[in-house]
């Protein structure tokens, strides 16, 4: 297990933001990041490994200015206040093959978004989300002169099909036009995904 605290200070930052019409907002500032990371790993059984990590982070602009106007104290956009992962994987042999099933849960906490209408970081937050993920790897020995081993993998992400936004911002109205100015636009996170892989060792 391990625990660490950190503090990072970024000075003399140039912060360009591009709007939908190509306009670039030129801002400058200084930001402070501080937080705590916790990590735990264990092997309760000879074939079972478990792990977890938890992070708390706070990020603010000590100074943030646009065209000479100062907006100090605003949060840095898209920095989750909390990140949490917990998972387990096992290894065992069966009929000469090695199997490694895995399960893990990922939590991404609330995070401040950007306000393109007012051209500023916003204190409004996008919602937290959680995904459940599964995986299975197998190593299959092959007794051929030209082929010695096959590795097969299957990964399922967001198994429960949770619906969430992976990104949000307040629009300036230039993306869709009309009366959309000031509306909250969101980009859906990935739905249920399935990945398969196959590799060979010659």
From TrEMBL:
The keyword Membrane applies. Keywords: Cell outer membrane, Membrane. It is found in: Cell outer membrane. GO terms for cellular component: cell outer membrane. The keyword Zinc does not apply. This is TonB-dependent receptor. It comes from Acidithiobacillus marinus.
